[in-house]
């Protein structure tokens, strides 16, 4: 049995390019005691991976060596098992890489046994019902301490986390404003997702004035997926004792060596803002609550899960490049074969 993998051929300079990646093959070895073999079905394509492609040591995840497997969250079906916690036919979800087969030892590697509902498409477990949705839920509920009646501003509101987060805020009784990079995305978040207002930062000569017009009394919670100019502009537009949830820094992922300067940090003191970064997997006590509520909203039709799906491992680099070029909406997902169900 051969395992096809996408490995790092060279380090990107700015937005990744096809030549930065290479398709490799290697045999699948025999399982050892305690291990399971996953036949991967779905990859979650996330922008945070971009930071691991540079030769840097200032990320919360290690840099990928040249020739190394590109890391990603995978959903796979167990095809062989030497671990009593997993049987053949089970589904496992873990942070592995762009490969067709993964060998994991659940005793020393975080792999989640996913109880798949046959009425829910598999891709949902890597998007709105996966760590994108869980991240949005944990960030708003625990880190942002969101309350009904408050104003929530969501950056990258048409993206993987933002598209779910904006709807969670709306469903929780908040006035919700989405910041996006295009009029089509603005129409999407107000029309399809039901947010109260949208700001297209690409079309605004004065972004601060546009944000103030959308939330004249300021924001109680700002969920930051992008950093950079949007974060800098949001700081003066926070209400006193507002909370900034730091989830991602998309504006700097392609240019770590020349990050966008933050000039309005003084406003943290002026408005007594709480600003906190978080990693969702450090809040596993909320996992069951998040998955249960997200599933209920999706099944009821209250939460629209938007997916951008590519098929085939060989097309994974192009899906990632499109994501890092700002060309996608919703969750970017790669399914390994046509038989994987999508939303």
Automatic annotation (TrEMBL):
Taxonomic superkingdom: Bacteria
Record key words, sorted: Oxidoreductase
Domain Enoyl reductase (ER): 16-334
One Gene Ontology term of the molecular function aspect: oxidoreductase activity, acting on the CH-CH group of donors, NAD or NADP as acceptor
SMART domains in the record: PKS_ER (SM00829)
The name this protein goes by in its record: Enoyl reductase (ER) domain-containing protein
């Amino acid at each position: 049995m051969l395992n096809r993998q996408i490995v790092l051929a060279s380090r990107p300079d700015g937005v990744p390019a096809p030549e930065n990646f290479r398709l490799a093959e290697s045999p699948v070895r025999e399982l050892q005691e305690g291990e399971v073999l996953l036949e991967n079905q779905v990859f979650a394509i996330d922008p945070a991976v971009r930071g691991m492609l540079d030769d840097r040591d200032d990320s919360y995840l290690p840099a990928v060596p040249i020739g190394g497997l590109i890391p990603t969250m995978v959903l796979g079906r167990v095809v062989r098992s030497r671990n009593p916690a997993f049987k053949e036919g089970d589904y496992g979800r873990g942070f592995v890489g762009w490969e067709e087969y993964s060998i994991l030892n659940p005793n020393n590697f975080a792999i989640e046994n996913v109880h798949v509902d046959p009425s829910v498409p598999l891709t949902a477990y890597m998007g709105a019902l996966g760590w994108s949705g869980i991240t949005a839920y944990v960030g708003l509920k625990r880190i942002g301490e969101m309350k009904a009646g408050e104003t929530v501003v969501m950056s990258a509101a048409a993206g993987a986390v933002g598209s779910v987060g904006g709807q969670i805020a709306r469903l929780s009784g908040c006035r919700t404003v989405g910041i996006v990079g295009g009029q089509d995305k603005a129409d999407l978040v107000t029309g399809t997702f039901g947010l109260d207002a949208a700001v297209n930062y690409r079309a605004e000569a004065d972004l601060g004035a546009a944000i103030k017009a959308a939330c004249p009394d300021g924001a109680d919670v700002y969920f930051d997926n992008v950093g950079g100019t949007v974060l800098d502009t949001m700081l003066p537009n926070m209400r006193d004792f507002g909370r900034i949830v730091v989830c991602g820094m998309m504006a700097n992922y392609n240019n770590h060596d020349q990050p966008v300067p933050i000039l309005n940090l003084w406003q943290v003191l002026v408005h007594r803002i709480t600003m906190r970064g978080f990693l969702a997997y450090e809040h596993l006590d909320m996992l069951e609550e998040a998955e249960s509520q997200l599933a209920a909203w999706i099944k009821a039709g209250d939460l629209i899960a938007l997916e951008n799906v590519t098929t085939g491992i060989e097309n994974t680099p192009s899906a990632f490049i499109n994501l890092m070029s700002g060309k996608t909406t919703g969750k970017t997902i790669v399914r390994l074969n046509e038989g994987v169900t999508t939303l």
